[in-house]
Amino acid sequence: MSDILSLRLSDIVKDGDRYRLEITEQKTKKKRVFTVPLVIQQYIENYCLRNGLEKTERIFDLTERTINKQLALVCDYLGFEGIRTYSFRKWYTTEIYKNNGYDITLVQQLLQHSSAAITQRYIGIEPQQIEEAIEGHTQLL
Question: What pTM was computed for the model?
Answer without folding.
Answer: 0.60
